[in-house]
Amino acid sequence: MTDAASRPAPPAPPVPLSRVQADAVRRGDLPPVEEVRHGVWSVAFEFGDGIDDHSLGYVVEGSDGALTVIDPGWGVDANLDRLEQALSDVDHALADVELIAVTHLHADHLGGAEALRRASGARIALHAAEQAALADRPADAAAADADIARWGAPAEDQEALVASWGSGRHLPAVAADLLLADGDVLPITGRKLRAVHTPGHTAGHLCFVEPEQRLVFTGDHVLPRINPGIGLGGRTPTNPLSDYLASLERMVALDVPGPDALEVCPGHEYRFTGLRERAEALIAHRTDRSRDAAAALDALDRPTVWQVAERMSWSGGIASLHGYRLGSALAQTGWHVQALGRAGELRPA
Ligand SMILES: [Zn+2]
After folding, report:
1. How far is the CA of 154 from the centre of ligand 1 (A)?
2. Is the pLDDT of residue 6 over 70?
3. Distance, CA of 67 to CA of 88 (rounded, Å)
4. How far apart are the CA of 329 and the centre of ligand 1, in A?
5. Is residue 327 part of a domain?
6. Is residue 314 in some structural domain?
7. Number of structural domains in the chain
8. pTM for the model
9. Residue 162 and residue 6: Cα distance in Å, rounded?
10. How far is CA 155 from the centre of its chain?
11. What's the domain range around 77?
């Protein structure tokens, strides 16, 4: 069993820099457009598929007036309308958008890219590993089905797992115009917005940092309160958990304490400072989970991934998780076991 009760309480979440964004999370509605800096705005986008949630995208203006949109949100018509209205409020139009820079391949970030490209003529930029993951979807889905069969989850969960985690799962199909690599500077006149490859949440996840403006756009790599899932897009020869921890260490190294601390512009929730502390808290959270997994392996003889997961601490408990969230929890359990070097102790398929 987990000894969560005896552990020190996790540090308090970072204080919001945007009160309206934090209030919107609490109320479950969309915050208004905010000016983050001169020529940088945040725009909230609704989810599709009847999911009651929202993501945060950002509009960045170059010195020539051309716009870059970071993460245009889910691909529903209302989001394109919302962006058009936001741009018109600051004397811009969709036609001014020349670049769509996407942190990662999930529907709530990349989903609206194709419609925005059509409406504006902008180019879509992604990390090369993200584009490869989109191309590998059929093989990925087959491998996910094989995982589901091996995990040993209850029979009543199997169908929803395949539909949401395995071969039934859908990702947006997009061909990028520009493939990004770590260290690339985005083609925005008068700015030095640099891509930082932060694999873990997905294989080609990118953050974008502009130190001169003290800004970092973190997508789903670092969020103020949510613990991001890992390995949620694209199989890699590496362990996504190990990748994620290394990518968090990069955030720790990127931030500077004091008045020059970076302002974090995440893909959900609210803006904050304290990137270093938040990244360290996420590392500590993962270390706790690894300890849970090790204790479960010590206590059980040839367990399934499900049996290990049952003994780890999940918010609400493993029994409360179904479909995609259950798939994510079980995949994470498998990577924790692998990262411990103890995959051989699991029950063979
Ligand atoms: Zn997201």
Report:
1. 28
2. no
3. 13
4. 16
5. no
6. no
7. 1
8. 0.93
9. 36
10. 29
11. 4-137+173-287
